Amino acid sequence: MCEAIINKIKQLKKEHNAVILAHNYVASELQDIADVLGDSLQLSIEASKLGAPVIVFCGVSFMAETAKILSPNSKVLLPVKTAGCPMADMATGEAVAEFRRTHPDYVLVAYVNSTAAVKAEVDICCTSANAEKIVAPIPRDKKIMFLPDRNLGRNVAKALNREMEFWPGYCPIHNAITVADVEAIKQENPGMEFLVHPECTPEVVALADKAMSTGGMLKYIRESDKQAFIVGTECGIMHRLRIENPTKTLIPFKPTPTCTDMKKLGLADVLACLEAPMENNPYEVVLDEELMDRARKPIERMLQFK
Ligand code: 13P
Ligand code: SF4
Question: Where are any strands of DSSP class E within the chain?
Answer without folding.
Answer: 18-23, 36-38, 54-58, 75-77, 106-111, 124-126, 143-147, 165-166, 193-196, 210-211, 228-232, 249-252
